[in-house]
Amino acid sequence: MTKNRLIIILLSFIAINTLASIFSIWESIWWLILFIDFILVVAFAEQLGTIIPLKHQKLYQRALAISFPIFML
């Protein structure tokens, strides 16, 4: 179930950005698309965290704590 959610989130991210590019709506509602992208990235990270084995959770959380702020820049 979690892997299906990861796929749905990833496909949603791709679809939203592809449609925004195809229909050239980036300029008018870029802030809304950026907000949706942020929500999808957070949802993806949360879902990914649920399938990481417990012995790797601490490493995942550290990697996320370092990489997520960098990714957001």
Q: Assign an overall shape.
A: flat
Taken in chain order, the helices and strands follow as HHH
> What's the average pLDDT?
92
How many helical stretches? 3
Helix content: over 70%
Helix and strand composition category: mainly alpha
Describe the SSE topology.
Blueprint: H1 2-22, H2 26-51, H3 54-72
Structure description:
This protein is mainly alpha-helical and 73 residues long. It has one domain (2-72). 90% of the residues lie in helices and 0% in strands. The chain has three helices and no strands. It has helices spanning 2-22, 26-51, 54-72. The longest helix is centred in the middle third of the chain and has 26 residues, at 26-51.
Question: Which key features would you list for this structure?
Answer:
3 helices
Explain briefly what this protein structure is.
The chain is 90% helix and 0% strand. It has 73 residues and is mostly helical. The protein has one domain.
